[in-house]
Design a protein that fits this description.
about 300 residues; alpha/beta; TIM Barrel; 8-stranded parallel beta barrel; two-stranded antiparallel ribbon; 13 strands; about 40% helix; about 20% strand; globular
């Protein structure tokens, strides 16, 4: 199983580089960056610095990924996830391919339909109703997959028209992995079944088992082997031997799926994810105090992740 760290793009550049370098040098498998331009109105959720959604420094994610691609020699890096509404899909495909060259072939393009209302309003980016966003998203995914595999792409959809579009140079990876984020059972998982190399969702083992069954049905309908799709789950981490703190967390659990317990208890929880078919656990740092961030990551790697390597 792979273990990766998920950062917002809100840290100062020196801190982003320092944390990413530490993650790579200590043996993590990947470094993910959230792609937003500002915090959401209600905060990122379980992030002490963002509960009110106040203005907070936020770098542009693909610029950060390009810089990290040049500095980090080993681990996978990617967006978790880029909103399709932010960029034309051909432009995004070109950006990700370029960063793949900078990295020597270690980029994952994570893509979702887009959702954060306040940043769309602030920056004048159109945020259509959900049904149209999903239609646009599916067309965009089809275009990106074609650009990465064909010399020229022609596509005439309801929302995008592409005419003899090249993408050169192609990514170093053939093809560059496309990760689709989200757990919508009617549309998102159907798009995953048709196009994705990887799929990510916030989930408990129970959620992952349920949604995997639905994904496998969609795969059967489109004639695809579900084993071709790597599956990752994101969960907040609260690891401590303080029983009083654990009791308080369990009595008032976070709004997001979470790993809560001692190291031994969390190892048992990770084993349940593995049994549910999860290939990668992604640990966000949203709830970590800055002064303890690297210590928490080291403890998790040595006391939990090492048992699954």
């Amino acid at each position: 199983m792979r273990f990766s760290y998920w950062s917002t793009a809100g840290d100062p550049w020196d801190e982003l580089v320092g944390t990413a370098t530490h993650v790579e040098q200590t043996g993590w498998d990947g470094f993910w960056i959230g792609d937003h331009f500002m915090p959401p109105a209600g905060g990122f959720g379980d992030h002490p610095g963002d509960r009110s959604g106040e203005l907070r420094d936020t770098h542009e994610a693909w610029s950060v990924l390009a810089g990290l691609a040049a500095l980090l020699p080993r681990i996978r890096i990617g967006s978790l996830v880029s909103g399709n509404t932010y960029r034309n899909p051909c432009v995004l495909a070109k950006i990700a391919a370029t960063v793949d060259h900078i990295s020597g072939g270690r980029v994952v393009l994570g893509l979702g339909a887009g959702w954060q209302e306040n940043e769309h309003l602030a920056y004048g980016i159109d945020l259509p109703p959900l049904g149209e966003r999903m239609d646009r998203f599916e067309e965009a995914v089809a275009i990106i997959k074609s650009l990465y595999t064909n010399e020229r792409t022609d596509f005439k959809g309801r929302h995008y028209v592409v005419t003899a579009a090249p993408l050169a140079p192609k990514p170093v990876q053939s093809p560059l992995p496309l990760l689709i984020g989200g757990g919508g059972e009617k549309r998102t998982l159907r798009i995953v079944a048709r196009y994705a190399d990887e799929w990510n969702v916030w989930g408990t083992p129970e959620i992952m088992r349920h949604k995997t069954e639905i994904l496998e049905r969609h795969c059967s309908e489109v004639g695809r082997d579900p084993a071709e799709i790597q599956r990752s789950s994101a969960a907040l981490l609260f690891m401590t031997s303080d029983r009083a703190a654990l009791a308080a967390l369990q009595a008032n659990p976070p709004s997001r799926p979470s790993l809560i317990g001692t190291a031994a208890e969390i190892r048992d929880q990770i084993a349940e994810y593995a049994e549910a078919g999860v290939n990668e656990i992604i640990v966000p740092g949203f709830n970590f105090p800055l002064e303890r961030r690297r210590t928490i990551l080291d403890e998790f790697l040595s006391e939990v992740a090492s048992a699954f390597r």
